[in-house]
Amino acid sequence: MASANTSWSEENFSCSICLDVLSSPVDTPCGHNFCRTCITKYWDEQVRYKCPVCNKLVDTRPDLRINTLLSEMVDRFGTSVRVKEQPRVEPGEVPCDVCTGTQLKAMKSCLVCLMSFCQTHLEPHQSVAVLKKHQLVKPMDRLEDRLCKKHDRLLELFCQTEQVYVCQFCRETDHKSHPVVPLKEEYGVKKAQLGKIVTEVQQMIQERKIKIKEIKDTVDMNKKDADREIANGVQVLTALMCRIEKCRNEFYRTVKEKLKSTEKQAEDLIKELEQEIEDLTNRNSEVKQLSHTKDHLHFLKTFRSLKNPPHPRDWTTVEVRPPSFVGTLRRSLDQLEETLNMEMKKLRDAELKWVQQYEVDVTLDPDTAHPRLSLSKDGKQVHDGGLWKKLTDNPKRFTHCAHVLTRQRFSSGRFYFEVQVKDKSGWCLGVARKSINRIGETMWTPETGYWTLNYGTDGLVFNDDPSVRLCPRAELQKVGVFVDYDEGLVSFYDVEARVHIYSATGCTFSEPLHPLLNPLTCDFGKNSAPLMISPVNQTD
Question: Is residue 74 predicted with pLDDT exceeding 50?
């Protein structure tokens, strides 16, 4: 038996496609050997079946069978094709599509094969005549997406008119009249735009981080405010509870002392009566004993001492009067009420100071003022001038109600302002929606967009349907208006007395609010004083 020819080179046992040791070798009708997997994949991507080495065509796809002899020779010699040391693929680089196991870095991509090859697997394209005709380009991934579907050419250009990627043939046909630039040039433009977008996105991210910090700081501040409020509330309520306990004990002691005094009086009277009974009983015994004596001299001497007995007390008018508890509880409650009033005064003062911190600087808008109204130059005062001025038409102006709005409007958060109403017999002020009806007569209610306090012949009322009549306040000089937009709250305060007047709660605000003033008619000079927007004075 002849021995194996050990002089064969390792190239005799390598696949011409993958250049690795043959794996499950098969041979084509033309006599060339390939890995079964390599030639199958190659033919799957071809329309016509040909040999990758000699380019010989066959009419039907050959039935591939493993070359047993060649397979045994590969196993016997244990040879392998040694490839040159090449760099491995790194992140961001294009890998070789043929390498199995460790992937190497692709050196070129083939626009015909639609595959990328390392230096070793690129050799057939540099040595085989038919493969040398293939168009090689720098390594690219997703080659299928880089080819023109119409011309099978590389997409190298960008049409600025239709904003699409085109090949050289597209430029000379469908896009002949369009401005077309190389992808690299459009890349530079879009890269600059991307840089701007990145800057804007980073700025937005930074703004949102700042907003997150603001929200967290607000939550922390709210927690501290809540803890402080709880501590203050507990302190006040504890003091009130102690005061109530003290009033209860004083009331209890007072009633018990009155009862004890009455009981002492009754005990003293009983003792006095018992003593008189004892004295009378003894005298009765002496009288009975004397009545039985037969000694005339003794009888007469003793009778003289019994003739004038001590004058007894007249008990017919004596009585034990029940104690009077009238006013006892009232006096205790009066003391408690005094304490409560003191605490309420402190709370009212604290509440007013709290809302005053949300003061806003507002000025009246002459474009909204009714023609009868006169405004000061600084926009802080308004009064009824008594005459209807001829003014240019303005859709912002009130034509029926003598209202005027401020230039400023508010659509979130909290705000507070004060208006002096001193020396006026009638006025109206508060806030109103931006879209309120300014032409013709309208009810001033929350339903129509008004949240206002009114003072006039009907006294002090909150304008609603029906109106809410409020307790009259003597010498009301300055009114504070506080709005918490997000909570739906509108509150009014007597600033001088530091007293809460009224609050509208559960309001629904769906658009900006304007502070509103109405000085009402001058009433022949009786109500000519102006309404004045005043700066907040915390020391009031």
Answer: yes
